[in-house]
Amino acid sequence: xxxxxxxxxxxxxxxxxxxxxxxxxxxxxxxxxxxxxxxxxxxxxxxxxxxxxxxxxxxxxxxxxxxxxxxxxxxxxxxxxxxxxxxxxxxxxxxxxxxxxxxxxxxxxxxxxxxxxxxxxxxxxxxxxxxxxxxxxxxxxxxxxxxxxxxxxxxxxxxxxxxxxxxxxxxxxxxxxxxxxxxxxxxxxxxxxxxxxxxxxxxxxxxxxxxxxxxxxxxxxxxxxxxxxxxxxxxxxxxxxxxxxxxxxxxxxxxxxxxxxxxxxxxxxxxxxxxxxxxxxxxxxxxxxxxxxxxxxxxxxxxxxxxxxxxxxxxxxxxxxxx
Length: 323
Hints:
- This protein has 11 helices and 8 strands.
- It is α/β, with parallel strands linked by helices and 323 residues long.
- The protein folds into 2 domains: 20-146 and 247-319, Alpha/Beta hydrolase fold, catalytic domain (Rossmann fold, 3-Layer(aba) Sandwich); 148-246, no CATH class.
- The chain has an 8-stranded mixed β-sheet, with helices on both faces.
- The longest helix is centred in the middle third of the chain and has 17 residues, at 195-211.
- The chain is globular.
- The protein starts with 19 loop residues before the first strand and ends with a helix.
């Protein structure tokens, strides 16, 4: 990664391993992978990964002081180490909110800090607005509220003007007659019976997001999107959620209900040049969320691993470590 003009003071804590792992059956269909690391007596934090369908990565543990935090991570339905793989049955926002509550009860947590980015911010907000009494604080990054305009900006027209050479392969995967609604066209293929087409569309869908996630293009990030099984779960589950409007009752529900969070402190970290989840959503949320602090990082895109975003998140985690 190239040298940044801004000097960011914080980096990740050293790598750690889980001290306990759980296999949790949350329905007749789904088993979740849940893990705990850090201090078993520490301040509980639940890590909500992106996608939907992205799964947790080991380095997520490193945002938290392991002496002060009890770090709880889980792979959401259908992805990561959870089973069945890439399954869309009984897989909605509200199933996942219920899963988080089941994890909280299983692990005997009264209240916890909720940490999530991108789709993880969506699910974190949905959880906190449903269970405000169980949420100590919110640490959110790359705000995504799953409004229709947000989806169209990235998957139909908007980011395409900034990354045309990466959007073209995504667009060309779909016949011209269907290009007026690319998400629906992809969904038909990702849920169809032709395995070769399904895999090709999953690769194209995932490669588009990985190509646009950082301010400075990262070839390793793009290659991650080309890993077949990861791409299949990521694309299928994302598209499933997006064509169904996140399974929300009304458009803009998360921002309309942000007043329910008025007693919950929050730090919102947003890359200025995030083209996957543009800054307007973070700004709209901040205006509707009394007590939230918005930090716009001047040289970051969407990725959690960019230096400015990483530094701000570690600082926010430290701020709430003894809450």
